[in-house]
TrEMBL record:
Keyword annotations from UniProtKB, A to Z: Metal-binding, Methyltransferase, Transferase, Zinc
InterPro entries: BHMT-like, HCY_dom, HCY_dom_sf, Hcy_S-methyltransferase
One GO biological process term: methionine biosynthetic process
Lineage of the species this protein comes from: Bacteria, Bacillati, Actinomycetota, Actinomycetes, Pseudonocardiales
Descriptive protein name: Homocysteine S-methyltransferase
Residues where Zn(2+) binds: C216, C279, C280
EC category: transferase
Length: 296
């Protein structure tokens, strides 16, 4: 069964933050490549993190390619061909983890925003000052390599503004590769300030989009986002908020009080959410609780 068919039948459990699982396992991610650095140095650690989520009840894991980009690895001296190998490896490693558990599992290849490469919190602001053509040129090579690696879906995630979403959708439109699109948001607006209603309109006419929603937002913002996404698009909704804490790009640390409660998932599902998980600071134990809540 493909992921789209599964979504038509029932809610599906996503994983939590890959970086969170890696940090819980003792890995230092204080690097501009973030978790993508381990594609270079310790792919087994990534496999183990994926496996922890699968064993916790996640049915979909998101690959370590969020911050893996051709320019980012070029800064470390890697060639285009060497980076392409690492991007394909991100899908392979997730598949390896899936093979170690029973039951149907899916792999989502992460396509992070341009701002992630900058490693300065820009994915929570957007408006990089780039043209749509420049954004398409940035995203296209990575999307092509990841798509060729054979994931079940591309996770176009943490997109802060409509302009970048439209650029990515311009790359995937007509490709036949399933995609979900999720915005980073605050309240009922993208992080760049556009109304979510306008942002979700961007997926109209793009048949490749199998779900649309938000991620790495406050859990309190999910209910309204689900309602808007469902009303505007009629598509399955994907939601995976962070813990409720805020990322400080200057100190490279999380501040605030955790507010992720698996009990809230019932309301999200009732509103139309079909892909449900967590993002930053949401680890395997919280996903375990979410999976239990969904099974009730």
């Amino acid at each position: 069964m493909n992921l789209s068919d599964a979504l038509a039948r029932r809610p599906v459990v996503l994983d939590g933050g890959l970086s969170t699982a890696l940090e819980l396992a003792g890995h230092d991610l204080s690097d501009t490549l973030w978790s993508a650095r381990l594609l270079l140095t310790d792919q087994d650690a990534i496999r183990s993190a994926h496996l922890a989520y699968y064993r916790a009840g996640a049915e979909v894991v998101i690959t370590s390619s969020y911050q893996a980009t051709f320019p980012g690895f070029a800064d470390r001296g890697l060639t285009h061909a060497e980076t392409a190998v690492l991007l394909r490896d991100s899908v392979t490693v997730a598949r390896q983890a899936a093979s170690e558990v029973d039951g149907r599992r899916w792999v989502a290849a992460s396509v992070g925003p341009y701002g992630a490469m900058l490693a300065d919190g820009s994915e929570y602001r957007g408006r990089y000052g780039l043209t749509r053509q420049a954004l398409e040129s940035f995203h296209r090579p990575r999307i092509e390599v990841l798509a060729e690696a054979g994931p079940d879906v591309l996770a176009v995630e943490t997109i802060p503004d409509v302009e970048e979403a439209e650029a990515v959708l311009g790359v995937v439109a007509g490709s036949g590769v399933p995609v979900w699109l999720s915005y980073s948001a605050r309240g009922t607006r993208t992080c760049a300030g556009q109304p979510l209603r306008e942002a979700f309109e961007a997926v109209r006419g793009v048949d490749e989009v199998v779900a649309v929603g938000v991620n790495c937002c406050d859990p309190a913002d999910v209910d309204e986002a689900v309602a808007i996404a469902r009303e505007v698009t009629g598509k399955p909704v994907v939601v995976y908020p962070n813990s409720g804490e805020r990322w400080d790009a200057v100190t490279r640390s999380w501040t605030g009080t955790p507010a992720f409660d698996p009990v809230r998932v019932a309301g999200w599902v009732e509103g139309g959410a079909r892909l449900v998980g967590g993002c930053c600071q949401v680890g395997p134990e919280l996903i375990r609780g979410l999976a239990v809540a969904l099974a009730r």
